[in-house]
Amino acid sequence: MDPSDLIPRLSHLPLLPHIRDLTIAYAIALLIGWNREREERSAGLRTFPLVAVAACGFVQATEQLLAAHPDGAARVIEGVITGIGFIGGGAILKGGGEVHGTATAASLWATGAIGISVGLAQYDVAIVIGAFTAGTLFVLGWFKAREGK
Predict the structure, then answer these.
(1) CA 109 remoteness from chain centre
(2) Which of 35, 44, 50, 117 is the most buried (most CB within 10 A)?
C-alpha cells in the first residue's frame, strides 16, 4: 500500500460548496458584527462572523456522517445552539441594578441561526434572519438613541 493512498486528494474534496457557504454565513454576520463594533459592545466585528462560520462549519462537518441519522444531526444543532447561548451569556453584564448586553447576546444567537441555516442550505432563512437582526439593531437602535436625547 502506498502511503499517499491514506491522504485524500484535494481534487476529490468538495471544497467549493463549503467555501461558498462559509463565505455567505460570514458576509451576513459581518453586517451584524459591524453594528455591534460601532456601538462599542462586548462582541463585535470579529466575533459575529466567527460564530456564523463555526455554526455553519459544525453543520457541514457532520452533514455526510449523519445524513442517514436525522436525530444525530438534530443533536449537533442543539449543541451548537447551546454553545452559542453560553457565548451570549458571557456578553451580558449586570452592575448597579442595570443589565447590559442582552441585544448583543440575542444577536449572537441569531448569528448562530444564520450559520446553521446556511449550513443546511436554507439561504433564504439565513438572509431573512440577517435582515431582521440588522434591521432591529440599526433602526431600533436609532430610535432608542433619539429617545434618550
Answers:
(1) 7
(2) 117
Dihedral sign (CA 138, 103, 120, 12): positive
Q: How far apart are CA 41 and CA 44, in angstroms?
A: 6
Q: Is 98 exposed, middle or buried (0-12, 13-18, 19+ CB in 10 A)?
A: exposed
Report if residue 75 sits inside a domain. yes
Residue 28 belongs to what domain range? 16-147
What's the pTM?
0.84
Any domain includes 8? no
Task: Please report whether residue 3 resides in a domain.
Answer: no
The tens place of each residue's pLDDT in the chain, 149 residues long, gives 677 666 666 666 778 899 999 999 999 999 999 998 888 777 788 999 999 999 999 999 998 888 888 899 899 999 999 999 998 888 888 778 888 888 899 999 999 999 999 999 999 999 999 999 999 999 887 887 777 65
